């Protein structure tokens, strides 16, 4: 695996990519193509590999495939549907919850297939707009 921690065109904040001894660990959000409500073994494995690699580099990690936010998204979609008087889809709600988690992170780790996913592309744009560090995880 290769890791590119230079950023997307520019680096924001500190250029350090690993936490200093005694410093608060950087929190990293893993982003890549999921595209399925029932997660395949392949999807779970690629996110798990990225999670393990980020842990090995000393980072705290948010892995959306292991977040357990699915049920919370169902409740949120229902509440938003009631509030706005139109059907709010589960996907809309899970994206909001994922972006909320990304907001709590210092960096985003983009998997090779992130450009194939509207959700991961949205996460990358949000990370860029909010000046997160970028880490590219792939072959």
Describe the structure.
The protein has 139 residues and is of the alpha/beta class. The protein contains four helices and five strands; from the N terminus they run E-E-H-E-H-H-E-H-E. The protein has helices at residues 41-56, 70-84, 90-103, 118-129; strands at 2-4, 27-31, 60-62, 107-111, 133-138. A five-stranded mixed beta sheet has the order 1-5-4-2-3, sandwiched between helices. Strand 2, helix 1 and strand 3 (60-62) form a beta-alpha-beta unit. The relative contact order is 0.24. The model is unreliable at 1-17 (pLDDT under 50).
Order of strands across the main sheet: 1-5-4-2-3
Query: Which ranges are low-confidence, i.e. pLDDT below 50, for 5 or more consecutive residues?
Result: 1-17
Q: What is the residue-mean pLDDT, rounded to a whole number?
A: 86
Count of beta strands:
5
Radius of gyration: 16 Å
Helix content: 40-55%
Instruction: Give the DSSP E fraction (strand runs of 2 or more residues).
Output: 15-25%
For the biggest sheet, the summary is: 5 strands, mixed
Give the helix tally: 4
Helices and strands, in order, run as EEHEHHEHE
